[in-house]
Every structure is written in structure tokens, then in C-alpha cells.
Amino acid sequence: MFNGIKGWFGWLAINQQCVLCHQLSKALVCPYCFADLPRFNMQNEAQNLLCNPKILRELKVINFDRLFAMSEYQWPYSYLLSGLKFNRKVVFAQALSELFCHLELAHTDLPKALVPIPLHPSRMASRKYNQASIIGKNIAKHYCLKFLPQTLQRVVNSQAQTRLNSAQRMKNAQGIFTMAHELDVDHIAIFDDVITTGATVGAAVDAIRAQFPDIKIDVWALCITPERR
Description:
The protein is built from 9 helices and 9 strands. The protein is α/β, with parallel strands linked by helices. The protein folds into 2 domains: 1-36, no CATH class; 39-224, Rossmann fold (3-Layer(aba) Sandwich). The strands form 3 sheets. The chain has a 5-stranded parallel β-sheet, sandwiched between helices. The protein has a two-stranded antiparallel sheet with strand order 1-2. The protein has a two-stranded antiparallel ribbon with strand order 6-7. Helix 4 runs antiparallel to helix 5 (91-100), helix 5 (91-100) packs across helix 7 and helix 8 runs parallel beside helix 9 (199-209).
């Protein structure tokens, strides 16, 4: 009887449910759901979404060197991110990081470190975790990058960007970050979950380049949200 129960739990351990269709799956997103995912083809985008005219047109801040993301912000990414941010479904962080790691990034010119966008301490105390940091740590491990979550400090508890227009986002993001730790690499990736105008990551770039003007900075994100006009 014991061996039967042990075998049952072992079977469950390798046959979890897909977080999208809830069918038994060895992966958090099963092969069938993965095949249906909307996603950018980074090879067609020349390994840089700044080469995409639509995305380039929508970004209001472009002070970084390259941009990588999985997709425009839409289902199922919106479902997974909302569940992680507001319903504490931390398993969704693992699913999202695994999906990001399927991007066909050129391994010949990877950054040496990944810096997640931090939360303000008061928001961190309320939410208890930073989704960008959780996902970013998994991604950094996959690509063998240094993970540097203490590099930036959010010194202004700014209003959430979600309901702001582009001009308000720009003003809202001014001066919100400062450098908290030195960098000893010449190429980094700043990681955030979703980018709309680029105001938040742009403020992070400004804070870093104020002290390290020659550093190469990529921006990695899960999704891009073109501004709705």
C-alpha cells in the first residue's frame, strides 16, 4: 500500500497541470498551449525590437541599446501577470520565466548581468514580493548572468503607471531611481514585466548612466503594450 501511495505522488510530481488549459503536463505551459502563444520572432526582428517600426513609434523613451520581449501584452500573458501580481500565484512567475527563456536570443552578445526594476519599499511591504525580481532571477540563472537586484533603489513612491497617458507616465517616472550599488560589468540588461512608453525603464537607464555613461544597456521585458490612441 505504501509503495502504491508513494508511486502515486511521484506520478503527480512529474504530471502537473498546465497553468493555462489545466491538462496534465510535465511543463507549466503544455506543448499545445505553447504552440498557440502569440510571440515575437526575435530572429526576424534582428535580435532587437527597436528595429520594429510599430514598437519604435510607440516608445517615448529610447535611451537604451536593445529591446527584447516575448509578445505584445495580451492573453495569456495578461492572465499570468495579473494572477502573479494581484492573486499571489507565484507559480505563474516560473511559467513566465520559462516562456521568456524560449526566446531565440543570440548567445554571442548576451549581457553580463541582469538588473530588475525594483519596487518602492512601501509597495514591497504591501505586496511582499517583486514580480520583476522573481522572474528576473530565474531568467538570469537560465542565461548564466549575474543577478543584481540591489543595484537600483526606488526612492519615489510614484503613482502606478497603468491608468496614465504617455505625458503623465513621463512626468510620473522622473527621478524615481537612484544607484544603490556599484556595477563591475560593462553590459547589463534591465528587466521589467511590461513596457508601454518606456518611461520607467528609461528612468532606470538614466540613473545608471549618470554614473556609468559608457555602459551598454539592453532592456528585457515579458511584454510590450503599445499605447492605445
